[in-house]
Amino acid sequence: MIANVRSFRRGRLSRAEAVAAAGGLRNDHTVAQVTAALDASGDAVRDVWVADGDLHVPGDLDLTRERVHFLAVLGDLTVDGVYRDSDDPESLLLVTGAMRARDVVTAGWLDVYGDLTTDRLVGDYNDCSARVDGDVRARLFYGENHHFTIGGALLADTVIGRPRLDVAVRPDVIDEDDPRMLEHFDRDLLDVFDDHDANGDAVTCVAGLRDVAEVRRRVAAGLPLRTAGPPGH
To answer: If you ran DSSP here, which 8-state letter would residue 152 be given?
Structure first.
């Protein structure tokens, strides 16, 4: 249980308050999904949390691990570790202010009214989506097949692949078959083969990411995607 949140299951949050908080979400899974979570019983029971103001989580925040279907932060959210959610079972996060986390791995519904600032932002599959009304600031953005809508600017040092992205200014990207992938990922995370160019010189070719699940695992664990050493080794 995260401190400074009110829990429906623990009797600190009324049904009406939970439904009212869900009305702030901007996707097709709003009140009906939250209402279903409130009415669930048995193995399907998950909680609904509301933070009445800014929320600081000193470690990681994993809604699936916490068995939370919907978290509403009525203010800014700061997560010192990784923020992670799920699409099976689906989870929903609403932040009415800005959000900051060490890293973000999102498969569920993510709705941020302000800016999102993180080191690495990684999408996971495509059943749900993320919406950020402000700017997104990240050192590395890999959207995978997840859909992102950004109302402000995407200010990322590196964008991998061709993300499913609605944003005013499309970013420059590094395609997954670009040799520059070796500057950002360990060789064992990539489909890599050795070849020769027209002059007969040896070259290393990249066919794409081989182990996306391991990429997500490393980010969630706070581990580097490329360890020390020359690219490709």
So the answer is: S
What is the CB-side half-sphere exposure of residue 19 using CA atoms within 13 A? 9
Cis check: omega of the bond before 89, within 30 degrees of 0 = yes
* Contact (CB, 8 A) for 51 and 75: yes
Q: Is-above-0.85 flag for pTM? A: yes
Residue 35: φ, ψ to 5°? -60, -40
36-72 residues labelled b (16+ CB within 10 A) or e (exposed)? ebbeeeeeeebbbbbbeeebebeebbbbbebebbbbb
Predicted local confidence at residue 147, as pLDDT: 95
Amino acid at site 228: A
Residue 169 has which token pair?
A: 């200014």
Model confidence pLDDT, tens digit, residues 78-102: 999 999 999 988 999 999 999 999 9
Mean pLDDT computed over 95-112: 97
Residue 189 contacts residue 176 (beta carbons within 8 Å): no
Calpha distance 138→127 (Å, rounded)? 23
pLDDT tens-place string over residues 24-80? 988 766 788 899 889 987 777 899 999 999 999 999 999 999 999 999 999 999 999
Please state whether beta strands 77-84 and 164-166 pair in parallel, antiparallel, or not at all (unpaired): unpaired
Do 98 and 85 contact (CB within 8 A), yes or no?
no
Q: Are 83 and 104 in contact (CB under 8 A)?
A: yes
